[in-house]
Inverse folding.
């Protein structure tokens, strides 16, 4: 989307979070939610966004070890760095802007490190007007509560009309040069009362365009917020994936076929570089599909002489290992064999047991079915046998925002 304009992100994470509980628990941006630091969840959306070219995190000078732990498991397709912040949020943002000034990005996104529920759609909404020429964008949500103005004595002074009131969120987006200049001028003037970066843009005369925010993009401020975020992320749906596989081999003269790991006496044989077990080949592809690991030909090319005549259980076992290495656990497998002959029914239980043995699954998680092709086509003419397979695999903890 942003082919011609460079975009940098600054994540502000230098605060101490005094309202978020006991100091012994550490700064709130490093508290665990869903098994990972708040900051880890926040960073992922920016690091993985295809249009964000670099990510700079402004941290407290004492938090370098905490920061390194928070990013240890994050992918880093975009450059990621940390710079020390100042005594206030405003000072910290300016330090972040100065750290990337030499790169002169076209656009900068400034986001609170304790808003971990930011997502790609919201980032896109903030970036969009900037790419079209806007100087600043601010995501907002409408106020739903009735707003009261209070007196110093703790009584209601007035009800404030809310029709034109909105609540500001981050990330806030800016053309880089104007917001850097505005921050520098505000610092030089000694102005320290700005609560967010759009306020500085307003002060500097920069027009701020509003875009729709996200109701769930909450800022974690007090201990209760962190507890609720942890509960929400811990209830994230599991990452269950389904893969499909298909294979077909020609029938030639012979006296047996291998199907789902079982030798079946027959008046024909399946032709192939290996033992041509279409059931295990299809299931191998189905397992590889659940983690994007290619297909059987990528791992066991028929041009490689070492696989000539190989037993297909080797392929299936390796596919299962690849799934495990990727963090997956096989839940269920299902194979449908399509042929006119031999009859599969008498061998189904043996096939299921073989699959259960190879994949270390309970028998009830292994299904084998068969159907004919109603004498239609090459299968109906007994020129070949085909198989379709499906595998369901659950992959490890996906509580990553």
């Amino acid at each position: 989307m942003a082919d011609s304009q460079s975009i940098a992100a600054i994540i502000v994470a230098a605060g101490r979070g005094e309202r978020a509980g006991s100091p012994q628990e550490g700064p709130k941006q490093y508290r665990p939610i869903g098994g990972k630091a708040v900051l880890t969840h926040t960073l992922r959306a920016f690091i993985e966004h295809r249009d964000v070219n670099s990510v700079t995190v402004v941290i407290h000078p004492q938090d370098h070890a905490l920061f390194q732990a928070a990013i240890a498991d994050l992918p880093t397709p975009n450059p990621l760095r940390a710079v020390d912040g100042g005594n206030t949020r405003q000072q910290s943002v300016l330090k972040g802007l100065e750290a990337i000034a030499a790169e002169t990005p076209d656009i900068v996104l400034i986001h609170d490190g304790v808003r971990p529920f930011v997502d790609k759609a919201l980032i896109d909404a903030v970036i969009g007007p900037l790419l079209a020429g806007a100087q600043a964008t601010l995501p907002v949500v409408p106020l739903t509560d009735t707003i009261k103005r209070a007196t110093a004595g703790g009584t209601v002074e007035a009800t404030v009309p809310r029709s034109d009131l909105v609540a500001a969120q981050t990330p806030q987006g800016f053309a880089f040069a104007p917001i850097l200049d505005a921050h520098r001028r505000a610092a030089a003037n000694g102005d320290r009362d700005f609560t967010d970066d759009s306020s500085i843009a307003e002060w500097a005369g920069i027009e701020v365009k509003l875009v729709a925010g996200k109701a769930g993009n909450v800022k974690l401020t007090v201990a209760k917020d962190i507890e609720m975020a942890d509960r929400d992320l811990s209830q994230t749906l599991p990452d269950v994936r389904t893969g499909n596989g298909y294979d077909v081999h020609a029938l030639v003269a012979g006296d047996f076929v291998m199907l789902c790991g079982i030798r079946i006496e027959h008046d024909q044989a399946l032709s192939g570089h290996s033992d041509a077990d279409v059931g295990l080949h299809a299931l191998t592809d189905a397992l590889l599909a659940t983690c994007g690991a290619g297909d059987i030909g990528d791992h066991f090319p028929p041009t490689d002489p070492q696989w000539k005549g190989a037993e297909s259980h080797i392929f299936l076992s390796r596919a299962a290992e690849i799934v495990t290495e990727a963090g997956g656990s096989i839940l269920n497998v299902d194979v449908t064999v399509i042929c006119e002959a031999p009859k599969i029914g008498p061998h189904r239980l043996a096939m299921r047991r073989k699959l259960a043995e190879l994949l270390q699954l309970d028998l009830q998680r292994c299904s084998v079915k068969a159907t004919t092709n109603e004498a239609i086509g090459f299968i109906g003419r007994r020129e070949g046998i085909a198989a379709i397979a499906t595998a369901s695999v659950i992959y490890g903890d996906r509580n990553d925002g």
